[in-house]
Amino acid sequence: MPNCPICGKEVQPTTAFCPSCGTDLRQVSAGPTIPTGSYPPAYSYPQQGTMIPAGSQPHSHRKYILTIIAVGIIALLVGGLIGYSFPIPPDVTLLTGTVTVSSQYHGNPNQIIFNGATTGNVSSGISSNGSYGIYLPIGDSYSVTVQWLNMTSGPYFGTHTCSASPSTFSSSNANATQNFSC
What we know:
This protein is α/β, with parallel strands linked by helices. 16% of the residues lie in helices and 33% in strands. Strands 1, 4, 7 and 8 form a four-stranded mixed sheet that branches. It has a four-stranded antiparallel sheet with strand order 3-2-5-6, with no helix packed on it.
């Protein structure tokens, strides 16, 4: 088998170009013998992309996956900061206060009733010191009634009610204090 006149690589007799250095072998075979003299060594360079090992190619999408995860974490952090900056307002009022009944009614209040157009009757028990606490939906207006037991009517006792003063309450914020009396 013939060799390439430039790099000396063994080639097929029908090969037109040297696969190592790219010399046109058609002119050399038709022409005179190989010239003598010193020639620089011919170097062979691999084709572009062949230096990457095949085993590492499945990891080529790793940077995209990591980028997507990083963007997701940043979005969650930004969303949390925005949500913290703009909190959702409460939808109920915590109403607290005291209830008193004048001495002419001879009794201790035991229940306060808030009657709203959308909620109907919502009530709270009253403790022995006259305090109460109740959650009322924000945005509604209520008429207020106080109830107590009258223990002075003989062997029988009765449940009595009165319209409280103030007689209405409108819920507009998360916490409110209102004292009522009869």
